[in-house]
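Annotators were shown the component list below and the corresponding predicted structure, then asked to write short factual statements about the assembly.
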Amino acid sequence: MDDFDTIPEIADAYAQGAVSPREIMQRSLDRIRQRDPHLNAFLEVAEAHALDMAAQAEAEIRSRGPRGPLHGIPFALKDIFDREGFRTTAQSRLLARNVARTSATCVARLEAAGAIFVGKLATHEFALGGPAYDLPAPPARNPWNPAHFTGGSSSGSGAAVAARMVPFALGTDTGGSVRNPAAACGIVGMKPTHGSIPVGGIVELSRSLDTVGPLTPDVAGNEIVLRVLNGSPMGDLVAPIATTGLRGQRIGVIRRFYRTDMQAAPEMTEAIETAIETLADHGAEIVEVDVPPLQDMADCSRIILISEGYALHRNLLRTRAVEYSASTRARLLPGAFIPAADYIRARDLQHHFRARIDAALADVDVLITATNMETPARLDDPDRLAVQYGRHARAPFNLTGHPALSIPIGFSATGLPLAMQIVGRHQDERSVYRIAQSYHRLAPHATVAPPGLDWADKARKPRRNLAATIALSVAQPTGGFIVCQGVSRS
Amino acid sequence: MKNGDRPCADALTLPGCDPAEVSQAREAAAQLLDRFRRGRSQDAIEPIADLVSPAEGADQDG
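Structure shown to annotators:
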């Protein structure tokens, strides 16, 4: 059964009767029990609910066939999505008792397609703060090396999918928070066109930038989830996703982002260039394109993000500031000092930057550039983590709203994943997926599971012991370590 | 950034927190604004054109 890690694999196995939804769900829950104590990806596991729904899915598939490829597929949610009857905490004390009365629109769409909610995943507080030890739960850890950061803020989503605990998870991407954990954890993460997926029922950060996105171990499964999130009819989902290959495809490369505007780590640059060569060797035409400076776009995006984020949190910061993580306060508070004139200027420039990226895409099918400039730092290296916070090329496409996908392209000398970003025209996720799928078939790095999972399964180390280990090994700049209370069950 | 151009907010106090957090945030915002205002892309919007409303439907979030 170990081969059934992706949505297409599981859906195909259901159709052939090779495995049942209850078996897949039990395997998912077993993996969570065995692996999550090492990774802290889950904040809550809805075990009873998940098993009930798996039994229902099994009966329905047996009697009437599957509703579509997501029927009976387990999934988990970054803990800023509302799921009726479960807490949405945004990993914050401020929302510790916040139980959702209804489900977010996109969650309802997944469940209507038959996907089964398994639990809530770690995030940076309010999808903004960094990895923090002054919160009720510790930060998620990277399945490729638990000493390292997962990327964020959809940190648990990246860890849970990379560790094969669930076949897919949802995250949100305001400054790269789907693509960052996807890149850091060696999986596929898509930030679709801004505004294309409803954000109702999700804890907001920046309405001009917030976007929902799926994280998966593969490209095809990612597109299936996105189609459902987009509200596609079930009938559309049955057809396999075809690719037409690379001949005739024109790919624009934004080298300035990772070679001159910022200098990526040599192994990241080398891996991106190798991936581009692979695409060229198989028929794609590669052209270099010019776009505005990365720093200009990143700063413009930051002005909007922190202004809108501060506006949302202003009243709570003035009355309950101490209940936030110090890192969240540090990232929200600068928004108090952005004049309205600069915010409006940034919103005006947003249109200019979108037009420039549109122009860069006028004669090519997609753009390729870096996602992150280097592999994720160790969690016990706050100085390096702080530097890495700004070393990426993700924010430009939040600013311009273009769909952007991160895909694994190899591994560093230390065994951590490397990644690149594929960017498409507005509403043209199909072209992004087509190029990504073609690359994935040529170089299937995304299907490689982290090697540490075997020892995780054998060790079955209790969470409390792990927390004690972390508490001893990690510097605590902002106060005491708070031990996660373990996996709770509904 | 000139002194007179330094961003100022209404008196911001965070109950229970170190006042230095506010001054650090102010400094972080000042650095960001400085880079943003000096960015080459600021020239993309002509001062005169800036005074004219965009065409209907130009707002990408519409």
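Statements collected:
1. Residues 1 and 22 of chain B are 19 Å apart (CA to CA).
2. Chain B is about 30% helix and 0% strand.
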